[in-house]
């Protein structure tokens, strides 16, 4: 893996279009069809995800924001002065701003994101709003082995930030692999991690089946993206959004469900969907506080304080690396 240096952006070449095409072929050819949820996030998908975060039914974002606000002083005391904040995914600037505002004189911010465009925007915004902060964006797939740019950290600790329960979108082996990588790059520092909690399945079900249909549009956008970028001929009206809580596996599963028997073409190959057959697009694992701490310990972290809301919807973990 090599870094391509530009004035403000370090790019790790991961040929995303080729990955999407190969992964879509593999998904369509498999007996149990499934594809990584990372392909949700083109420009439209990112907009739809932002809209999901505002939904009445989708409690994780506002609950995590209130945990960050409510425990800012404790987090700041643990982080100390001049921390370097490394964010895995340049997602919600709202969240990292809360963290940066809480910290004492944060020295630098390293957002890592697969979308160079998203990163460039995030970096430009933060540079103008935090003139004293050194911003070093890294365009990379942080689910792959990762090397952080050297020499960006000052005297403070390296503080990883992985909010939103994105950890739940990994399967258990990927989650462990990610946490091991994070423990390695943050060694001597810590990771501030948001994790959604196991709860009443009705609450979970509502969060992924909102009345306004935004989550359905987010799910179906994957097919629109494939049509545009890969030249598939998915009939968007031929698929329905499906999301349910798989309680033995403690995860929400999202699927695109074929409404009838139909064919889909990709690069001259034809794939058949039976009526009711699905393309599995996402898992969103839910954790207990203890299961998350055990996973982190297995990856090499020492679990520290954990903060939850009074309804125990969501958890925010301090994990020492
Ligand atoms: C990004 N991730 C944590 C979200 C989740 O809840 O698993 C993605 C999402 N999918 C449907 N709604 C939100």
TrEMBL record:
Native organism is Pseudorhodoferax soli
Could you tell me what this protein is called? Dimethylhistidine N-methyltransferase
A Pfam family recorded for this sequence: Methyltransf_33
Gene Ontology molecular-function annotations = methyltransferase activity
Q: Which GO terms describe its biological process?
A: methylation
Which keywords label this protein? Methyltransferase, Transferase
User: Where do the Histidine-specific methyltransferase SAM-dependent domain residues begin and end?
Assistant: 20-320
